[in-house]
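User: Please predict the structure of the protein below. I'd like the answer in structure-token form so I can feed it into my own downstream comparison script.

Assistant: Understood. Taking the following sequence of 381 residues as input:
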Amino acid sequence: MKHYNYIFTGAGLSALMTVYKMALSGKFKDKTILLLDENIKQTNDRTWCFWKKQDSIWEKSISKKWDSALFANADFRRDLDLLPYQYNMVQGLDFYNQVFDRVLNEPNIRFINQKVLDINEILTHVYVATETDSYTCDSLFNSIYRKSEVECQTKYPVLQQHFIGWFIKSEEAVFNPEQATFMDFSVEQKGNTRFMYVLPTSKTEALIEYTLFSPELLDKSEYEQEIQKYIQKLGISKYEIVEKEQGSIPMSCYPFWKKNTKRVLNIGTAGGWTKASTGYTFKNSDKKSTQLIAFLQIEHDLSKFHKKTKFWIYDLLLLDILDRHNELGASLFSSIFKKGPPSLIFKFLDEETSLCEDIQVILKCPKMPFIKAIIRSTRYL
């Protein structure tokens, strides 16, 4: 049975970011590292977006950048000047290639294409079983999301950011390649939080996604019908679908960290690394993986890694409102984006604002839903 210093069960975004930074740091050359995943990571299976002020280590993976974004609902449209931020698109295959081109050339890092069946922590190490082999390690980082554990409990609200997106190529030049559509709530809400998300890469090409923040998923046909309606609304009559993507990202303030132990740390979606109130994953995972690299150089007890912040409370309040009144999503997000500097909003969503700046953002929101959510919040604490 092969023993490793570190095993990553699941080679998703968070695991790959962490291992890539381990390799870049040069601080883990004496540690053996194993990545286990049933997916070989050789397809363009997803798109991530994030905003940033300056170049990052992910420049090779960024396929498009925008300095401007559009926010809209049924009553108003606002062009958002994002500076000093830029909005960035990363396609899955570009990210996988950047990571594996580096880490698989490291003699101490190995990727094995196997499905993990069991994880068992004992006193001196952690045991991992796959369909064909068994391994042990000193420390394990798990990013395999346990859906039933989170979604079957009733204490913490759980929504889904669920979507279907089409990469299309149009015969009509209708897109502005210099502006992304961040949220367009002008589509019919139908008692939910529903919006269109558009990432144009040229005047004739774009990713168009129909997205919901709600508890229940829809039939595939409903997403696609709404995309077709929106394409017609844009003035497009002839187009081809180049590629499709779909996904469902859990949005919850469930305390994933309570499952962490001395030798096992849950990361990624399984560890609560997804931004609960928006579903954004790339930037949060980037930050958390950097923190984890620093942590591992001074500490071995993985249960000490997580730190709860004020932003967990803010996210919890919003999710509590949307769980009870999902139809309020458009008005809540519109209240934040209608006025005020976009740079402050993005700083707030990045969890980098001071308390004074937090108040500036929060005061833009409707007061009564949040007051009621604050009163109810005692049940979560």
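That's the full token string. Residues 282-296 form the longest helix (15 residues).
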